[in-house]
Amino acid sequence: MASMVVQLMGMFLGIVGWCLESSCINSAVWRRASHGEAVMTSSSRYEGLWMSCASNSLGAIQCQRFKTVLGLPGYIQACRALMIIALILGLLAVILAAMGLKCTKLGSTSEETKGKISLTAGIMFILSGVCVMVAVSWYAVRVVQEFYDPFYGGTKYELGAGLYLGWAAAALGIIGGAILCTSFKSSRPAQTRSLNYNYIASQPQKIYRSAPSENSVSKAYV
Fold first, then answer.
1. Minimal CA–CA distance to 174: which of 138, 131, 118, 117?
2. What is the pTM of this model?
C-alpha cells in the first residue's frame, strides 16, 4: 500500500512537470526587453523560442513568428530540440507510469515486470527534466551574458517568465522520476525475501536414523 502511494505521488509530480514543460515551450516570454535606463516606457518587447511579440500601453499585442530557422542563433535551435525531446520523453514516461502502477492490471503481467516498467518511467521523467534544465539554463546564461556585455550593440533583454516555468518543470520532473525509482527499489527486497522463503519451504524433508550398534546385531543372531 505504501509503495503504491509513493508511485502515485511520483506520477502526479511527473505529470505536473510535463504540463509545465508544455506551457514553457509555448511561452513567448523567455526574455523581455530591459527598461532599466528608460524614464518612460510606452511599449514592451519580449521573445520566446518560436516568436517575437511587442505590446503598447493600450494593451495591443502583436506577435510575429521567426521567419527563418537556419538564420537563428545556434543556442535557440539547440533549446528547441531539447524541449521537443523533453516533451516526447515526458509523454512516454506518463504512459509507462500509468502502466506500471500496482492498481492497474495488464493481463498476466507480474509485479516484478510492472516494477521494471515503473522504474523505466522514472528514468524517463528524470531525463526529460534534465533536458529542460539544460535548455532553460543555457538560454538564461546567454541572456545574462548579452545583458552585461558592454560591447553588445543589440537590444538587451532580461529573464522572462517562461524560464522560471522551465526551471519549475525540470525540478518537478526530476523529483517525480526519483520518487518512482525509489518506489521500485523499496518494494524489491520484500519480494526477494518471500521467494527465498518459498524455496526453503518447498525442499523435501530428510530424516536421518542412527546406525545399528554391535549389541543389537549379536542379539539378533541369538
1. 131
2. 0.76
Closest by CA to 117, choosing from 134, 103, 96, is 96
**For 107, left (φ over 0), alpha (ψ -120 to 50), or beta?**
left
Q: Give the rounded distance of the alpha carbon of 173 from its chain centre.
A: 3
Q: What is the pLDDT of residue 1?
A: 66
Q: In the chain, which stretches have pLDDT less than 50?
A: 39, 189-202, 216-222
Instruction: Look at residue 58 and give its three-state secondary structure.
Output: coil
What are 160-204's pLDDT values in tens digits? Answer: 999 999 999 999 999 999 999 888 765 554 444 444 444 444 455
Strand order in the sheet with 51-56: 61-65, 51-56, 43-47, 31-33, 157-159
Q: Are 57 and 43 in contact (CB under 8 A)?
A: yes
Start-to-end C-alpha separation, the chain: 71
Distance (Å, whole) CA 45 – CA 215: 111
Cell matching residue 154: 543589440
Phi first, then psi, for residue 152 (nearest 5°) are: -80, 120
- The C-alpha atoms of residue 9 and residue 24 are separated, in whole angstroms, by 22
Buried b (16+ CB within 10 A) or exposed e, 89-106: bbeebbebbebbbbeeee
Q: d(Cα 59, Cα 146) in Å, to the nearest integer?
A: 28
